[in-house]
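Re: beginner question about structure tokens

> Can someone show what the tokenized structure looks like for a real chain? I only ever see the sequence side.

Sure, here's an example I had lying around. Input first:
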Amino acid sequence: DNLYNGGPSFHVWAVNTSQGMILLNSGKDYSADGVFEGLRKMGLDPANVKYVIILAPHDLHYGSAKRFQDQYGSHVMLSEKDWSIIERTKYVPASLKPKKDMVVTDGQKLTLGDTTLTLFITPGHGPASLSILVPLKDGNDRHLGALIGGRDWNYEEEGLFYFSSEEEAMRAWKASALRFRDITDKAGVDVIL
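And the corresponding structure tokens:
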């Protein structure tokens, strides 16, 4: 009852809380209108997006974040390393890049209204991709969802090298996947997003 797919991009989730929404990714820049329209079709107001958490430094994850910043004053959150990647990438025009805002640290909690998400830095898909634990409501039932910040390793994208070699990227992703598996087991996750 509190989780929505945020529009035409499968990379966007909206977590609705008692004090507004948290977007998990924002979709590509050209899909922004679709994300806004998708939220409205579900009875959600895009102006209520208080935070946009970007899981990885690829424009398909952050391309619409700047519109949320500019139109609604939404806060954008990434890891420090991923902010650096966005700043340095040459393939995305500066006009589409969100302004550096909030920096996520490992194990950080974000509370908005009645909902607290827990964020973890899980390198591999990007230099410091984020994975998230999301409390979910289904009527009177409560669940805990997990969203991993990339389902595969990524050595290079948009003209930037994230790791010194493919092997380093694979090792980082494997270590993060194993660590996040342990985190989800300990937390009692019962839904994979």
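Each token stands for a local structural state, so reading them left to right follows the chain. Residues 166-187 form the longest helix (22 residues).
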